[in-house]
Amino acid sequence: MTPQTPSGRPRLTLTNDRVVAIAFKAADDGQGWIVRLYNVSDTEQSVGIEWTDPKPRSTFLSGTSESRGAAFAGPLTIPAWGLVTVRADR
Asked: What pLDDT, in 10s, does the model give residues 6-25?
């Protein structure tokens, strides 16, 4: 199920159908969202995240601790069968 805005529009859209969002939740600290992306293919994939309004102020690579890692603004590269956690701050 894709998280939706009150208007019924998807909260985010991925630009590559070989990458799926396997989790979307509020960050434990209440300051943003956590998205876990999984590459379902046997080759490296690049994916962009397109957000509906309100868009995040900034996005970071993260991990299970939900901490802010390296900031990014463009597409992500996910290795074959790889998992990436993104933190999007409000």
From this structure: 567 899 999 999 999 999 99
Angle at 49 between CA 40 and CA 83, to 5 degrees: 35
- Asked whether residue 29 is domain-assigned, the answer is yes
Supply the range of the domain harboring residue 30: 12-89
Q: 47 is written with which tokens?
A: 């994916």
- DSSP, residue by residue, the chain: ---B-TTS-BSEEES-TTEEEEEEEE-TTSSEEEEEEEE-SSS-EEE-EEEPSSPPSEEEEE-TT----SEE-S-EEE-TT-EEEEEEE-
Query: How long, in residues, is the chain?
Result: 90
In a domain, 44, yes or no: yes
Q: What is the value of pTM for the model shown?
A: 0.87
- On whether residue 4 sits in a domain, the answer given is no
Is the pLDDT at 1 greater than 70? The verdict is no
Domains identified in the chain, total number: 1
